[in-house]
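Hi team,

Filling in the usual template for the complex we talked about on Friday. All components are listed, including any nucleic acid strands or ligand strings, so the model treats them as one assembly.

SUBMITTER: L.P.
PURPOSE: interface mapping
COMPONENTS: two
RESIDUES: 406
SEQUENCES:
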Amino acid sequence: MTQMEDELTPEEKRALTALGDATPPPPGLEEATLSRLRAEGLVRRRGRSGNASRLLAAAAALALFAAGLAVGRRSFPSTTTAAAAAATASSGVEGPRFVLFLYDAPTEPAMSEAQMQDRVSEYRNWASGLRQSGASASIRGEKLQPGRAERLGPAAAGEAPLGGYFVISAKDWDAAMEVARSCPHLKHGGTIELREIEKT
Amino acid sequence: MTGPETDGPGVTAKDGPGPRELPARAGPSNADPSDADLVARFLARRDEDAFRALYRRHAARLYGLLLRLTDGRGSEADEGMQETWVRAIRGLERFEGRSMLSTWLAGIAIRWWREESRKRTREVELPGENGLPPAAPMRREIARVDLERALATLPGGYREAILLHDVQGYTHEEIAAMTAVEPGTSKSQLSRARSALRAHLAGGRA
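RESULT (copied from the run log):
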């Protein structure tokens, strides 16, 4: 092969260069990588410091529970556990009930106190709006306990943390999907999984 | 290699994602901290935000490389991505800035892939030139799918040479630093790899 033949033709160069376009990794991979780094003690968890952060956390948790909403972050319960908890949540309303599992945005930055309050208000207003409009006669949610959690089955690595859930009533699957689509969690980069609660 | 990662000699340190500036690549703007700044910030406090900034700056390019090395197997690329970053963070204190951070990361990814290939008994060694059919340079437009298939068919070492030089845009000096070969060896490997690629494209074996 001559030196000339060893060089790329413009067509070859164009085709090969095009393969080098950026390929964004899956959204959960950053968190999964960070989890491994934290487990090995190589990265320090981002945190607010001092009494202010503890007060903020307590205030936020109180506000969340008072409102019956779920915007908690960084908890890793199994879906099975959350589903069981959701299924036991009594709505007092006949008809199909659904659960919206809220998975955190994988890259959401830490929130300031003001941002946290805004977020709580936003979710509270969304829930109130659902009740008033009749989209869901019953809606309740709970923040999940942060800390130790275990996942069973294949869906372990790379998933975003499950931060909480809502139990809603809706006349059918499509109506429940409408509710899920309206949840502000989506616009903040979170993921929602909709499941129907089995009637017992 | 699972030991400490260090950057090889012979490449001038620069900040930024890499030698070929692609439009889709998110490199640092003038207002962004440099890689060196972020590395220093991370090392000072094991700072999560500094890590996230480094990850987001280099992830797309690194993941693209891993995805092509692993023939598009996402789960393997994911594993390679995590392993690359874990090894990089373990060895970050020994990164002396003699190469660009992106080059150093790519070198770690390549070494991970070679280890995995050996474990999974994939072919990594380059075959001799004698068995290759002659191939002329391609002077027609090449469909992306054909090129991807041809690359996936190549022996691992050939694919590595083309991915690093022709796709990712690294120089022979950078490739030599990250793969522990002489630049001349990198050139000759690339020459044989291009010939093999053309043979696959022309012969319909891709």
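MY TAKE: The radius of gyration of chain A is 22 Å. The mean pLDDT of chain A is 67.

Thanks, L.
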